[in-house]
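User: Can you predict the 3D structure of DUF429 domain-containing protein? Sequence below.
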Amino acid sequence: MSRFAHFLAIDWSGARGERHKGIALALADARGGPPVLVESKKGWSRAEVLAILRDDLPPDTLIGLDLGIALPSADCGAYFPGWSNSPTDAPALWALVDSIAAEEPHLAANSMVAHPAIRPYFRDGSETGARFGCDDAAHGRGRFRVTEHAQAAMGCKPYSNFNLVGAAQVGKSSLTGMRMLHRLRGHLPVWPVDPTEDTGSVIVEIYTSLAAREAGRSAGHAKMRSYEALNEALVALGSPTVEGAGPIDDHATDALLAAAWLRTVAGDPRRWNPTGMTPEIARTEGWTFGAV
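Assistant: Sure. Here are the predicted structure tokens for DUF429 domain-containing protein:
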């Protein structure tokens, strides 16, 4: 049984602008009942989500953020191999992103990718940086963290956090999320980067496609765009269904299913002790909660 009283899943967005249809929040109660969307009439801003996490969380909440909390490091021995200022751990990486992008509003992180020393490590638009791969040459899908290899072994289709191209890329949302994580230092621990206690709230990285896979959906059909599909997946997780019929936004379904999934798996010790996670990987790359 999990020690948490609430489970908050956040479908995040790295898009430009202040408010985003791509941000969705859903909350599940440990005592039961269906997951519930946390509504915003104008659409959520990243700053509003930061304020909720910092100042307005229900007690003992497990927060799942659908983004990458760090960049690959183990594969090349550094986030930015060959750059003398490459950070040495995840908190230092978060601080670097927030520092470089400090003048950008809405927790945007475009300046990070535009930085002349850092740009060669990313694929952005039509340009693939010369250091997109470990061997100084662009290749394939880019660099993966150890946890992303674990995701792939479970049947998911992860993307490199150095990739900023395509509808499924998570690089932009990860960079904006790192700015938020830096601003939450001292407020909330981030598993597995930080030590956690037996009480209090904790942030974990999630991958909503992993929740969908465990609810019986294939990697190619992880997105749900109807109440019927969502409720079928919720039933597969042992969760009560939500009210509604017909179309529903897939960001909402991602968050609703992920909140129910967190409630289902948070008490499983294997999720907190994945086979491939070493102390060094936890400190530098982090891990996707649930990827065993």
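The first helix runs from residue 46 to 55. The mean pLDDT is 94.
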